[in-house]
TrEMBL record:
InterPro entries, A to Z: AAA+_ATPase (IPR003593), ABC_transporter-like_ATP-bd (IPR003439), ABC_transporter-like_CS (IPR017871), ABC_transpr_LolD-like (IPR015854), MacB-like_ATP-bd (IPR017911), P-loop_NTPase (IPR027417)
Enzyme Commission (EC) number: 3.6.3.-
EC class name: hydrolase
Keyword Nucleotidyltransferase: no
GO cellular component: membrane protein complex; plasma membrane
Residues in ABC transporter domain copies: 21-259
Domain of life (superkingdom): Bacteria
Keywords in alphabetical order: ATP-binding, Hydrolase, Nucleotide-binding, Transport
Protein name as catalogued: ABC transporter ATP-binding protein
GO molecular function terms attached to this record: ATP binding; ATP hydrolysis activity; transmembrane transporter activity
A Pfam entry, by short name: ABC_tran
Length: 268
């Protein structure tokens, strides 16, 4: 069984009433030559620490725009977006870059690992940018590699790992800064059903340890594993529903059964 993440503050966060983020009447417009695209038209919702939210919606509904705002890659045109206590709406670009590199844990569909670096070095990357390269940081990266089940792959490079293992490295990297939340963009989009199941089980465990997860997905069976599903449509929040624990458990069991059935078919 992999180690739990060595972070007491995060471990107790599931029980806290603090907000990881608060999105208040957020609007985002892209001004083009001939028109203004209103990508978000007044979206509001809160994400308490310890939540696990799936963001869904049809193409063009504003998911990537919202993800970019949550990841401090862009600022709202109007409204407020709080990360912890900080309102990013009024920050300078430098302040945004700082908060992005220190306090957001990104996980992408395509892993975005550096091919020349080992597992441990990839996990340490967010710390390089802060000049934190000491033995304590290396130990932290090694602990995180064990946490995601890669304790025996520390010196492997990405091309020596499976897709699921690479996504585990990316998840460990996302945690190295003790982020406000893990921001995952289609994290299982490139993975087969067995590996998808493994990554979702890892998210379940991290969330159980108090980690906040915000994940964009197109897949209903992935969204069923989250605690909550926020749906966007035409730049507006269309629904915000809770997946109760019994439904989540059913989703886990169904997905595990589907993986076992697939493996049995492949053996025949
Ligand atoms: N940089 C941009 N400049 C102009 N318009 C943009 C820009 N980014 C997004 N848009 C527009 O904003 C709207 C919302 O786009 P967004 O990418 O957020 O949707 P999405 O839900 O992520 O879609 P998909 O699922 O296809 O990725 C769309 O009409 C899109 O064309």
């Amino acid at each position: 069984m992999p180690n739990a993440i060595p972070q007491p503050a995060a471990a107790s966060a599931a029980k806290s009433n603090r907000l990881a983020t608060s999105i208040c009447d957020v609007r985002k417009e892209y001004v083009l030559k001939s028109e203004t695209v209103r990508a978000l038209r007044g979206v509001s919702f809160d994400v308490p620490e310890g939540d696990f939210v799936a963001i869904m919606g049809p193409s063009g509904s504003g998911k990537s725009t919202l993800l970019n705002l949550l990841g401090c890659l862009d600022k709202p045109t109007a409204g407020h977006l709080l990360l912890g206590e900080d309102d990013i709406s009024s920050m300078s670009d430098d302040e945004l870059a700082e908060i992005r590199s220190r306090r957001i844990g990104f996980v992408f569909q395509s892993y975005n690992l550096i091919q020349q670096l080992t597992v441990v070095e990839n996990i340490q990357v967010p710390l390089y940018y802060q000049g934190r390269l000491g033995s304590e940081e290396r130990r932290r990266a090694t602990d995180l590699a064990s946490t995601v089940g890669l304790g025996d792959r520390l010196d492997h490079r990405p091309n020596q790992l499976s897709g699921g293992q690479q996504q585990r490295v990316a998840i460990a990297r996302s945690l190295v800064n003790d982020p406000y939340f893990i921001l995952a963009d289609e994290p299982t989009g490139n993975l087969d059903s067995k590996t998808t199941e493994e990554i979702l089980t890892l998210f379940d465990r991290l969330n159980g340890e108090g980690r906040t997860i915000i994940m964009v997905t197109h897949e209903d069976e992935v969204a069923r594993r989250a605690k909550r599903v926020v749906r966007l449509k035409d730049g507006l929040l269309r629904s915000d529903t809770t997946n109760d624990e019994a439904d989540r458990q059913l989703a886990r069991e169904e997905q595990k059964a589907a993986v076992i059935a697939l493996a049995a078919r492949e053996e025949d």
